[in-house]
Amino acid sequence: QVQLVESGGGSVQAGGSLRLSCALSGITYSGVCMGWFRQAPGKEREGVAAIYSGGGSTYSADSVKGRFTISQDNTKNTVYLQMGSLEPEDTAIYYCAAKRWRGVGCSTRLAFTYWGQGTQVTVSS
After folding, report:
1. What is the pLDDT along the chain (125 residues), one digit of tens a residue?
2. Alpha-carbon distance 23 to 4, whole Å?
3. How far is it, in rounded angstroms, from Cα 82 to Cα 36?
4. What torsion, rounded to 10 degrees, do the Cα atoms 106, 38, 14, 119 define?
5. Which of 3, 43, 52, 93 could be stapled to 118 by a disulfide with Cβ–Cβ 3.0 to 4.6 Å?
6. What is the C-alpha separation between 16 and 85, in angstroms, rounded?
7. Buried/exposed code over 86-110 (b: 16+ C-beta within 10 A; e: otherwise)
């Protein structure tokens, strides 16, 4: 039974920072593409960042490049999203997702198989 549990969401003022965590269980972490997505009310879900468990380059959307950083702790089967310089436009529910994967090409453009419940991030001006 695959499970993804997000944590770390909350409310911050513009310019602040938050660190989201996503713990994966139920499948081996050695062969997965892990992604962060977000969805604001009335908007489509958009990919934020992705990282491959086996290493290599990470992927990030242009809208967050330079402000958000995705990372992982393979010993804990956990992926993180460090969010800095937050803006009101970053307000959304943030979801963690996973897909079995090997090799290059890990990005949020893939069709992810497993999804977490989401965690709310609210940025006030």
Report:
1. 999 999 999 999 999 999 999 999 999 899 999 999 999 999 999 999 999 999 988 999 999 999 999 999 999 999 999 999 999 999 999 999 999 999 999 999 999 999 999 999 999 99
2. 6
3. 11
4. -110
5. 93
6. 6
7. beeebbbbbbbbbbebeeeebbbeb
